[in-house]
Design goal:
The strands form 4 sheets. This protein has a 7-stranded parallel β-sheet. Strands 11-12-13-16 form a 4-stranded antiparallel β-sheet, covered by helices on one side. With 446 residues, it is an alpha/beta fold. The chain has 9 helices and 16 strands. One of its GO terms (molecular function) is glucosylceramidase activity.
Length: 446
């Protein structure tokens, strides 16, 4: 499956996002990399550990049990894959609540040692926590392309989480994390926000009044989730700093939506509208789960991965999201730029055919054409260079896409492997009826 996803001759997936520490979709109890008994500190991070044992060994712990060996395998298949890491929570001893779950915030302005040195603030120690993570992963041959400071900084659920205000994120990145990274990992990117766009609709001031230009310049990009709109809130980030790259770092895969609504979201909103607004990176959550929505420490809560792997047979189901991601990764070369193209859907839901076209570094063109309607639509496609001339005639299926290439080299024409037949199933009957451990909605079913 990893070859099918990441091999440049197959799916050519080029980015992934991983938790820095544990998150709720996990097979191990919650942990961070520096867990100490309540009431103790570890200001020197002497107990920092990404796990014990050999990568992938039965007795390995934390990231060494599954995450690190899988990332090593992915990078062996495609060394160019970019990895973004986001923490769900700082270690409990660094937090105001003294626990991982249910939010709480970093112990801002407090000190971990005798004195008032910046390095002894909880902010300074937490910045070094990120550096230690990068150092440990480098030892295992895993470069981390980018970091965000916090996954969903406005959310306080019953799993590892931490609350940050927008000024707190900006100041921590500018004053503590960026300087710490610049000493040993100057090429590691740092992304701002990494939360839902709807939260930006309720803050009482524009971002330009909450973040100074120097603070904004410390970040390389703006990361966001697309669970709720208005999606035009993207502009609140993209227009704050025109040099920021835009990364959609999370969207739960479709499960309750009808096929047409799922297509509108994945192919229309994300694949057409957001990409036309400058989106540089697309990551979905999660890449793989079983048919119960597991692993998950809070139980089978009705989630689905890009691929579904049956927990008894290992059979793979490739979901709609798989095809959306493969559509871009296989057809659009890394480093491509979006070029002008005619677009008749303003929102990815309504109107006529939508398009987004890409110019690759070698001069090749790839064009995605999307049909938001419930009936097939025909199109005559032209390229305007030295005058318009007919290129191709295509029929785009209902709620579907067609990709066209004008290439100066080989085109990746690979197809999903035929070992498993794909079947779109937006209502998996067994997902909520099968029993799974944890605190989820079906925790008591047996």
């Amino acid at each position: 499956m990893l070859h099918e996803l990441f091999d440049p001759e197959e799916g050519h997936f080029s980015t992934i996002r991983v938790p820095l520490g544990s998150c709720e979709p996990a097979s191990q109890p919650f942990y961070t990399y520096d867990d100490v008994p309540f009431g103790e500190h570890d200001a020197s991070l002497a107990k920092f550990s990404v796990g014990e044992g050999e990568p992938g060994a039965p007795d390995a712990t934390k990231d060494l049990k599954y995450l690190i060996p899988v990332l090593q395998e992915i990078l062996a298949i495609n060394p160019a894959v970019k990895i973004m890491a986001s923490p769900w929570s700082a270690p409990a001893w660094m937090k105001s609540t003294g626990q991982l779950n249910m939010g709480g915030h970093l112990r801002f302005g407090e000190y971990t040692n005798n004195g008032y040195a910046v390095k002894d603030t909880f902010e300074g120690v937490y910045a070094q926590y990120f550096v230690r993570y990068l150092e440990e992963y480098r030892k295992y041959g895993i470069p981390i392309y980018a970091l965000s400071i916090q996954n969903e900084p406005s959310n306080a659920p019953a799993w590892p989480a931490m609350i940050w205000t927008i000024p707190q994120l900006a100041q921590f990145g500018y004053k503590y994390l960026r300087p710490a990274l610049d000493k040993t990992f100057p090429d590691t990117k740092m992304y701002f926000w990494d939360g839902s766009l709807n939260v930006l609709d309720v803050i009482d001031k524009p971002l330009s009044e909450l973040i100074t230009p120097d603070e904004a310049a410390a970040f390389d990009g703006f990361a966001f989730h697309t669970y709720d709109g208005p999606y035009t809130n993207l502009f609140k980030g993209s227009r704050l700093n025109p040099n920021w790259h835009l990364a959609m770092t999370e969207r739960r895969c479709m499960i309750e939506e009808t096929p047409e609504d799922a297509s509108h979201i994945m192919m229309g909103l994300i694949g057409n509208w957001l990409v036309r607004q400058g989106l540089n990176m697309i990551d979905l959550w999660n890449i793989a789960l079983d048919e119960r929505g597991l692993p998950n420490q809070v139980g089978a809560t009705g989630r689905r991965g890009v691929v579904t792997i049956d927990h008894k047979t290992g059979k793979v189901q490739r979901n709609l999201e798989y095809y959306m991601l493969r559509n871009f990764n296989q057809d659009v070369a890394p480093g491509s730029i979006v070029i002008g193209s005619t677009n008749y859907t303003q929102d990815g839901y309504t109107g006529g055919l939508g398009s987004v076209a890409f110019l690759a570094p070698d001069g090749s063109i790839a064009a995605h054409i999307y049909n938001p309607s419930g009936k097939p639509l025909d199109a005559e496609v032209t390229i305007n260079r030295d005058g318009a001339y007919a290129w191709q005639h295509v029929t785009v299926p209902a709620w579907g896409t067609v990709t066209l290439h004008k290439a100066f080299g080989p085109v990746n024409e690979s197809k999903p492997r035929e070992d498993e037949a794909f079947k779109l199933n937006p209502y998996p009957a067994n997902l909520m009826d099968d029993w799974a451990p944890g605190k989820g909605v079906n925790a008591n079913k047996k």
